[in-house]
Amino acid sequence: MSGVFANATAVRRISTSGTVGHVDGSTVTTFASEVQPGWDIGGNANGGYLMAIAGRAMSEAVGRPPVTLTAHYLRPAPTGRCEIVVTTVRSGRRFATATASLVMFDGDDRREIIRLLGTFGDQTPGGPSYLAEGPIDIPDYADCELPPAPGEGPKPAMMERLAIRIYPGDEGFRTGNPTGEARIRGWFAFADHEPIDAIGLLLVADAFPPPVFNTELPVAWAPTVELTVHVRGVPAPGPLRCSFRSRFVHDGMLDEDGEIWDSTGALVAQSRQLALMPRPPA
């Protein structure tokens, strides 16, 4: 395992115990890790990054990559050491199911940050297929690079580690000219050209600006309440083609749906999340 992202999501197994509670055959495995600086937006660790740390621990506990993973976010995460407690609920021939809790430490207090549930298994290509939609049609990666907007401050630290390119026009929010459509399209790659695997896809699902930035809502932090990622395949080498949109915003909450396609045009991930409306700085 090498690369900036792989190192920033590395986990270390520290204990394993047998059956617990009333769940026959379940195994509890605890991993140590660290929420590292530079993967945050305004001091709060990115939700996809936190999911990737926990997802890596869960994957190592069951010995298989994620197929579907859901995380519920309990509180914001600062930088610092953390533990991921993984319970393997069932391990079958094709799939394994596990739950996990990522906790951080405030002095002697343990504070749970996210709670997760996931199914893990190797991809089995082949069989019938049906595609109602193909990959989005956007300009080539090299044609989507954007210069800094006038008066724009420094990029969030996480953006320095990524090589995201936004579809020309979808960046209107950066200059105070939102498109009026809650949609963001573009390309995703790591700045150091690290290959993107199933764990990397968990980050991709939450790495782009919220689509609602292209409406009249404030351009500000939109805390994730729940995020689900379906891993549909292992990406081929190269940048990923991404599309995210929001359809319903009301009562202080918004939805976001995402599709992620690899360089061959194969669908490799889908995502859905529920988040709070953007919160301007106090």
Distance between the first and last residues' Cα: 40 Å
What's the total count of β strands? 15
- Overall pLDDT metric: 92
CATH topology of the largest domain: Porin
Elements, N to C (H/E): HEEEEHEEEEEEHEEEEE
What structural keywords apply?
Porin, mainly beta, 13-stranded antiparallel sheet, two-stranded antiparallel ribbon, single chain, 282 residues, Thiol Ester Dehydrase, Chain A
Task: Write structural notes for this entry.
The protein folds into 2 domains: 4-120, Hotdog Thioesterase (Thiol Ester Dehydrase, Chain A), CATH 3.10.129.10; 141-276, Acyl-CoA thioesterase, double hotdog domain (Porin, Beta Barrel). Helices cover 10% and strands 37% of the residues. The protein is built from 3 helices and 15 strands. A hairpin with a 2-residue loop joins strand 7 and strand 8. Helix 2 (47-62) packs antiparallel against helix 3. The longest helix has 16 residues, at 47-62. The chain is globular. The N and C termini lie far apart (40 Å). The mean pLDDT is 92.
Give a brief rundown of this model:
The chain is mainly beta. It is built from three helices and 15 strands.
